[in-house]
Amino acid sequence: MTNRNPAEQLGKIEAELRRLGLLVGPIQPAQVVRSAFGMGEMPFEDWLTKVFLPRAYEAADRNQWPQTSQVGTAAIRNLDGQADYAALITLLCEFDRIVEAL
């Protein structure tokens, strides 16, 4: 059965980012970026930990989710072919499905 709780899915995404060593320590406030997914400003992996995750937790705290999410699609574009990131890509794609089903 598919998880339907985006906040619970965020916990799984956070755990995977930590397992991969991409997130260490507490989650910091979201950094400001001027481009979608931080393109041209920072690596996608940094965007996930410094922008996506803090903003997504803020959305969870307010229970105000966007109508659409494309973080999974962005993950495929940026991380595809890197076997270590397969589970993360799957979790992010599932996050998209959960958010869009709300």
TrEMBL record:
One Pfam family from the record: DUF446
Coiled-coil residue windows: none
InterPro entries noted in UniProt: YqcC-like_dom, YqcC-like_sf
Database matches in SUPFAM superfamilies: YqcC-like (SSF158452)
Domain YqcC-like: 7-97
Gene3D superfamilies assigned: YqcC-like
Protein name: YqcC family protein
Lineage summary: Bacteria, Pseudomonadati, Pseudomonadota, Gammaproteobacteria, Lysobacterales
